[in-house]
Design a protein that fits this description.
heterodimer, A: mainly beta, four-stranded antiparallel β-sheet, 11 strands, B: alpha/beta, FAD/NAD(P)-binding domain, Enolase-like, domain 1, 3 domains, five-stranded parallel β-sheet
């Protein structure tokens, strides 16, 4: 895993209260825009093999898994609603001049 | 106050979790007949059957049991409830006292009633062992007979086809999934399975199964006998209501409970597949054999036992994955309502929104999970856009609610 920041797209790629899927080092990552801020988490639910980018952003802070409706807090990865019990991994993100950078640390 | 849960499936496990998370300070004992830690069953006809998943999701592993203070005892069969003494008796003679008792006993697969139902390679599907036994038969070129055109039969057929097994599927009724889907969807699934190479015979039953030549099974069908390498039977669930019936609880299509999961005995609750519960969505009572009910009703009952005021009345929600189709059903579909269609069958992505008068009644979707999600919110909020808006593919339904 790198230590540097990876360009994963532009701020315009992500709609407000929405998801955007990207691939980093062969791994599915999900980007979100909440109140103009960009967040990034693993793109796969910790409960089952679901693609979180197909889920819905709820209450402007939770990502709801499309498979079973479990939710995680996008900002912290904390599992909120069943069946999710294991936390979701979050990635450090920075935005510079409209470009989103992510650090693929675990 | 100690809570004893009989049945360590998905529902039993969620009662235990929810109870502890709700602040319950007393003991929680979880008694399961199976030897496994509580697990979810849906993958047994899909990923576990096909081998892409080694094991279905486990709901309470030993560490979690420790952390939550749940005394999980696998391989225990409860044979008797003594309501006056507030204790249950197990098959080995041991006695477990309870302050409150929860019955999460589910059921067992209905066996075939014809001769030969107990021959080797005639399978039912409920447990991990069942799934693994069937999986061993799913080898390219083998001939599989699936008896039952409900969800289990259809998912097994789809999984078997993906393994290049030759599949014939029999349904005793005149259409597939008749208990759950309106006729147009039965037709849609029939066509899909036929396109995928399944030979489907409706209005057909088996009169007998005998040992065939070379370790196959000879199945007597209306047109004559046919040989198969294995048979999978998916013809319904026989509810495990015996304990409840014997001790005098009200049982009618399952163990009868109120909105907090209480049976006719105030110290005994029932949850999951076995529970017959009130539902405004059904306009009366219903019993749901679904993942969502096993989880969410159990979570609600756990909270009720922990002292919260609970009135569980969630809209029924079900899904099935067959081939490249994700089928979801929200509410209880009506058989004679055309509904508003969104998307197209040809595109492989569509939903049908059924209305009862002006009110949204149910939604059935194929590869359109977001339609189900937004509809669920509308139903909870008691609002709904007009049929014109729903049918307009240029409108994003999940963005609508923000504007409302």
């Amino acid at each position: 895993m790198h230590d540097e920041w990876i360009n994963v797209g532009s701020v315009a790629d992500v709609d407000e209260d929405d998801t955007h899927s990207v691939e980093v080092d062969g791994k599915r990552v999900c980007l979100y825009k909440l109140g103009g801020e960009i967040y990034a988490t693993d793109g796969t639910c910790t409960h089952g093999e679901a693609d979180l980018s197909l889920g819905m952003v709820v209450d402007s802070c939770l990502i709801e898994c499309p498979l079973h409706e479990g939710t995680f807090d996008i900002r912290s990865g904390r599992a909120v609603d069943a069946p999710c019990t294991e936390p979701l991994h979050c990635y450090p993100v920075k935005v510079e001049q409209g470009v989103i950078y992510l650090r693929p640390v675990r | 106050m100690d809570v004893v849960i009989v049945g360590a499936g998905q529902a039993g496990a969620w009662v235990a979790r929810s109870l502890r998370q709700g602040g319950h300070k007393g003991g929680i004992t979880l008694l399961g007949r199976e030897l496994h830690a509580p697990y979810e069953r849906p993958p047994l006809s899909k990923g576990v059957l096909s081998g892409t998943e080694a094991h279905p999701p486990v709901l309470l592993d030993p560490q979690q049991c420790d952390a939550l203070g749940v005394d999980f005892r696998p391989g225990v069969e409860v044979v008797d409830i003594d309501r006056s003494r507030h204790q249950v008796r197990c098959a080995d003679g041991s006695v477990v006292p309870y302050g409150k008792l929860v019955l999460a006993t589910g059921g067992r697969p209905r066996p075939l009633s014809c001769p030969g139902a107990d021959l080797p390679h005639v399978h039912v599907l409920r447990t991990i062992e069942d799934s693994m036994a069937i999986a061993r038969q799913l080898v390219p070129g083998k001939r599989l007979l699936v008896i039952g055109g409900g969800w289990i039969g259809l998912e097994v057929a789809a999984t078997a086809r993906a393994k290049q097994v030759d599949v014939m599927l029999l349904e005793a009724g005149s259409r597939l999934c008749a208990r759950s889907l309106p006729p147009r969807f039965s037709e849609f699934l029939l066509e899909k399975h036929q396109q995928e190479g399944v030979e489907v015979r409706l209005s057909t039953t088996v009169s007998s199964i005998t040992a065939g030549r070379q370790r196959t099974l000879a199945v007597q069908l209306p047109g004559g006998a046919q040989e198969f390498d294995a048979v999978v039977v998916g013809i319904g669930l026989l509810l495990d209501t015996g304990l409840a019936e014997t001790c005098g609880l009200e049982v009618r299509d399952g163990i009868v409970v109120d909105q907090a999961g209480r049976t006719s005995d105030p110290d005994i609750y029932a949850v999951g597949d076995v529970a017959n519960q009130p539902s405004t969505w059904a306009g009366g009572r219903l019993r749901l054999e679904s993942w969502a009910n096993a989880q969410n009703q159990a979570i609600a009952v756990g909270k009720a036992l922990a002292g919260e005021d609970v009135a569980y009345d969630e809209i029924p929600w079900f899904w099935s994955d067959q081939y490249n189709l994700n089928i979801q059903v929200l509410g209880i579909p009506l058989n004679d309502v055309e509904g508003i269609q969104r998307g197209s069958v040809e595109s492989g992505q569509f939903s049908v929104f059924q209305f009862s008068g002006e009110r949204l009644h149910s939604v059935i979707s194929v590869n359109a999970p977001r339609d189900i999600k937004v509809a669920k919110r509308w139903l909870k909020q008691g609002t709904c856009p007009s049929p014109d808006v729903i049918a307009d593919p240029s409108v994003r339904l999940d963005k609508l609610e923000r504007a409302a």
